[in-house]
Automatic annotation (TrEMBL):
It comes from Gigaspora rosea. One of its GO terms (molecular function) is dTMP kinase activity. This is Thymidylate kinase. PANTHER family: THYMIDYLATE KINASE (PTHR10344). The keyword Transmembrane helix does not apply.
């Protein structure tokens, strides 16, 4: 099926934050969830990869922390499986009226593994059929800026060459649901823009079917 059946009541929205490391995604995810819950919506936070979800999450966490070694294809399949493990929860939450705010999504898996040398379309194929986000906020920050931020370089993929390549791949993944934000703006300025656009999306998507990601690609 190309769409998901609605339960008869308004569904929630799937809102995703994407971007390279240290771009401010986690901060804006937290602020948006708090804002929506304070303004009468039921919003929950999601994260990809979900490092605490067993059995795959801890393996992914260990790999990213340089504690175990994996070939790139094995890591790709671990990442995609980690997101598929969450699929039922994601769909059920959204179709039951909750707005899900994700700190990273399938685009991350594709961008970083393509940056490491795997084929773009091959990487995308593992995520086909997941829920299509209603809006993707892409936090655009030049590498020279993210390199200065606290924590950069602390994990396996926090390497300048990989980050620059991933940033280029993200450009090829952008769709009509993407909003490009200047991540160099202040936290509060960004939050105000994000909150306003999110309210519009929630109102519009409430009576429309949830679509499938990359179904026709």
């Amino acid at each position: 099926m190309s769409t998901l059946e609605l339960t008869g009541s308004k569904r929630g929205a799937l809102i995703v934050f994407e971007g390279c490391d240290r771009a401010g995604k986690s901060t804006q995810t937290e602020k948006l969830v708090k804002y929506l819950n304070e303004h009468g919506f039921t919003a929950v936070k999601g994260k990809f990869p979900a490092r605490s979800i067993e059995p795959l999450g801890p393996i992914i966490d260990n790999y990213l922390k340089n504690e175990v070694e994996l070939c790139d294809r094995a890591f790709h399949f671990l990442l995609s499986a980690n997101l598929w493990e969450q699929e039922s929860y994601l769909k059920n939450a959204i179709l039951n009226g909750k707005t899900l705010v994700m700190d990273r999504y399938a685009y991350t898996g594709v961008a970083y593994l393509t940056a490491k040398g795997l084929d773009l379309n091959w990487c995308k194929s593992s995520y086909i059929g997941l829920p299509l986000p209603d809006i993707v906020f892409y936090m655009d920050v030049p590498l020279k800026e993210t390199e200065k931020r606290d924590g950069f370089g602390s994990e396996r993929l926090d390497q300048s060459e990989i980050q620059e390549k991933a940033r280029s791949v993200y450009s090829s993944l952008k769709g009509p649901e993407w909003e490009i934000l200047d991540g160099r703006q202040s936290i509060d300025e960004l939050h105000e823009k994000i909150a306003n656009m999110s309210l519009e999306v929630i109102q519009k998507c409430g009576v429309t079917p949830l679509q499938d990601l990359w179904k026709n690609s």
